[in-house]
Amino acid sequence: PAFPYKYKFKFAGCPNDCVASIARSDCSVMGTWKDDIQVDQAKVLEYSKTVDIEAEICDFCPTRCIDWDGKNLEIDNANCVKCMHCINVMPKALKPGKERGATILIGGKAPIIGGALLCSVFVPFLEMDPEDDYADLKELTDAIWELWGEHGKLRERTGEFIQRVGLSNFLEEIGLDPIPEMVMAPRSNPYIFFDDEIFETDDE
């Protein structure tokens, strides 16, 4: 059967996302890495002659995970959000890690009917193995297409469909577990509602 509406893929080689894939596609495949940023301390020292590393790199790091003592640059990679700022400023001294793959984001679109939407992270890191013919990405796409194709309304993009049915229901149907990266903002409602089965007694 025909899809409810179009489904766009866009591919970005790194988190700089020069093609604006998160704003213009239903599925954004963005290159990323999983291990530590590669640091060439000798090249960092060369950059320090022309770049104020403390002010232009450390102070602009969104998670403050970079320290510079005047001789060595230390990165707390566990808190790195891969914003690419430090690599953009010192491309000869810093490089992405060697364990590379892609972040999969779903649900973006331009404003036509329901307004613009940005993609949300669904898979923080996915190995993109050409020898495996990108089987994991295809499996995720097939699950989304099957659900959206069956229950989507006419001219309803994937992001609008997720808003209508709810993210938790969408994730459950396509077989993905919720992860912290999917949270767009802290909850504003202090009340928590549990599923009915939690209150079932042992006798039942």
UniProtKB/TrEMBL annotation:
- Name the Gene3D superfamilies on file: 3.30.70.20, Sulfite Reductase Hemoprotein, domain 1 (3.30.413.10)
Keyword vocabulary terms for this entry: Iron, Iron-sulfur, Metal-binding
Span of the signal peptide: none
- GO molecular function list: heme binding; iron-sulfur cluster binding; metal ion binding; oxidoreductase activity
Q: Does Iron show up as a keyword for this record?
A: yes
At the top level, the lineage of the source is Bacteria
Query: What protein am I looking at?
Result: Dissimilatory sulfite reductase alpha subunit
Q: Which gene encodes it?
A: dsrA
